[in-house]
Specification:
- With 322 residues, the protein is an alpha/beta fold.
- Helices cover 39% and strands 16% of the residues.
- Helix 1 links the parallel strand 1 and strand 2.
- The mean pLDDT is 91.
Length: 322
């Protein structure tokens, strides 16, 4: 790829954005430009960098993630487009790695992601210090040992850090902008690529460091948009997506997701739900799988106690009638 544009989506988190742009300035191959899709009312106050930085406003009442990506590509001029969420710092070879990978495969490439603990980027950070404290997410598989590896399941697509040829992206029609708020728009795009026969691949390299910020997983703070977008996906493709989150919401008593009926929100997340799902300051990432395991163990324990109570009641009743 002769030219590479970087598109980043940003709302708030100005320190994260500055760290990302600093990482792009430290690339072994500089991007031709950076497009910041600003999902808020005002642009950022940014210093000068060694490449053009253009900000385009894509405001909305909820996170317009799909629209922001589409408008970012429309504004970009590179042969290839690298997408980075605002909380990602690119490792020095990220742009070069993606350019090389897209020269080998006309598809969607997903680079590596490592997660940083709180305060890892405080002060004048270096790549050596980031590498020394970064961790791989336990819920996600690692990269191949080398090169590219085709993913046979479109659901592996994760939009945090990926790249695609601009012409290939435009040929798909882009992300479905009916998805608003958090959740589902990337799975929908992965499904679209799968239907078109466009490969999705993991790659060795293209590394980004995910900066710490408080989060919830499963994302109970985005309950409404997850439910709404799951139903949109079902209306479009015939089945629901984000099943692991919906399952967690169901076990928590937040929703009724009976098949063939609209998902009903039974109650709003409370303090205990937020405490259970919230990322702790010592954790570099939040973990839905561990929350689900805890909920399942809790439910099994409650069912066991109920069963024992029923057996005791039946035994006492039989003793009285004997």
């Amino acid at each position: 790829m002769s030219t590479v544009s970087v598109v980043t989506l940003a709302k708030g988190r100005p320190a994260h954005l500055r760290n990302q742009l600093l990482g792009l300035e430290r690339q072994t191959r500089k991007p031709a430009e950076v497009i910041v899709a600003v999902m808020q009312d005002a642009p950022y106050d940014l210093p000068e960098f060694g490449f053009p930085v253009r900000q385009i406003l894509v405001p909305g009442p909820e996170l317009p993630l799909a629209a922001a990506r589409n408008q970012g590509v429309a504004a970009a001029g590179g042969d290839a487009v690298v997408f980075l969420d605002v909380d990602c710092i690119p490792a020095p070879d990220l742009v070069a790695d993606y350019a090389r990978g897209l020269g080998e495969l006309d598809g969607l490439l997903m680079g590596e992601v490592l997660h940083l603990p709180e305060r890892a980027t405080t002060g004048d950070w270096t790549y050596e210090t980031l590498a020394g404290v970064a961790e791989r997410h336990s819920d996600r598989r690692g990269p191949p040992a080398s090169g590219l590896e085709i993913c046979p399941d479109y659901r592996c697509f994760w939009s945090l850090n990926f790249a695609i040829r601009r012409a290939t992206f435009l040929a798909t029609g882009g992300f479905d902008e009916r998805y608003t708020g958090y959740g589902g728009e990337d799975t929908d795009f992965g499904k679209l690529l799968d239907q078109r026969g466009t490969p999705i691949a993991w790659m060795k390299g293209g590394l980004a460091y995910h900066q710490y910020h408080p989060h919830h997983m499963p994302p109970v703070h985005h309950l409404d948009s997850v439910v709404r977008n799951a139903e949109l996906f079902e209306a479009k493709w015939g089945y629901r997506t984000m099943g692991h989150w919906l399952y967690a919401f169901k076990v928590m008593g937040l929703i009724d997701d009976t098949p063939d009926r609209p998902i009903r929100i039974l109650r709003r997340p409370e303090v205990g739900d937020l405490a259970l799902t919230g990322q702790q300051s010592h954790q570099p990432y939040s973990n839905a799988a561990s929350v689900i395991r805890f909920l399942e163990a809790q439910r099994t324990s409650q069912e066991s106690l109920q069963g024992s109570s029923q057996e005791s009641s039946q035994g006492a009743s039989q003793a009285r009638t004997a």
